[in-house]
Hints:
Helix content: over 70%
Low-confidence stretches: none
Amino acid sequence: MPVIKSAAKALRQTKKRTLRNKGKVSSLKAEVKKFKKQKNPQSLAKIYSLVDKMTKTHVIHKNKSKRLKSRFALMVAKKSSSKKKTS
Length: 87
């Protein structure tokens, strides 16, 4: 346990932030699961929004967010191109 008052406060803050960040990460994972089933542009926009918010609040690194957005965009592009070929 922390001895100094400021260390005790820092510990309380860290616990709160950790819980908040875990919630954000789990919501992103849930959205990714939904996205992988549908792969439509509407869900892509929602994922972009979530990822951008998480990057802004430093929950995930900016390079990770760019990588995620790129991969999801590729998934949508592949699905739409395969629809055009079969039509």
